Amino acid sequence: MKLVMMTSALLATLTLAACDRPAAVVAVPGPAVAVPGATVVVPGPPGPQGAPGAQGNTGNTGYTGSTGSTGATGSTGSTGSTGATGSTGSTGSTGATGETGKAGDGTVIILPPPAKQ
Question: What does pTM read for this prediction?
Answer without folding.
Answer: 0.19
